[in-house]
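Following up on my earlier thread - several people asked me to post the actual chain instead of describing it. Fair enough. Here it is, all 219 residues.
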Amino acid sequence: MPEAMEKEPAPPTDVDADLRARKQAMRATAQRARAAIPGPELATRAAEIERRLMALPEMDGARIVLAFHAFGSEVPTAGLVARLQREGRRVLLPQVRGERMEAVDYRPGAAMTRARYGAMEPAGETAADPRSVDLVVAPGLSFDRAGRRLGYGGGFFDGYLRRVRPECAVVGIAFHEQLVDEVPAGPADVPVGIVVTDREVIRAPDAPRSGPGSAAPHL
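Reply from S.P.:
Thanks for posting it. Predicted structure:
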């Protein structure tokens, strides 16, 4: 489309403001619930999440896995990453570049830097092709049984999920306390296909694992 014919972005509406407010309220509630989990339970419950995740049939043929480096009260992922590497899988971790997220190879002992949102990320410069990823392990503050995911508000993972192959398995991991009846979601939010908690595995029957790009603002 010629530049002169491009449309200006639509101004925020009351619907956008309401969605943003509901997300912010749920983020605060989820962070409190996650932080309230007793420290001694974290390792045991993370191990149970890892066990359920690794038992998924989608994991059998997953040679390239995008995971994440947990921080704060997130589900610990150090054990999972180490296990994936012991099994000979190629492990990628998120790296935020401006307003876009890429996935970069991670190897034990590799240089890491702290991202502006708090997590550690690999310092490598070569990004993997999103279409090469077989399985994504996605973080989130809250999930529901339809696969809707509440992130931290930057939209980085949603943007990346729109770039993977449709057959790429996308799995959200969380503690049981992070499950809610319904996550508020807008057109820019990409659901996961599976949610794994320390108590169950939830398959979202209607949630696409990836979708077309969207020009809608991420709230």
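Confidence is low (pLDDT under 50) at residues 1-9, 210-218. That should answer part of your original question.
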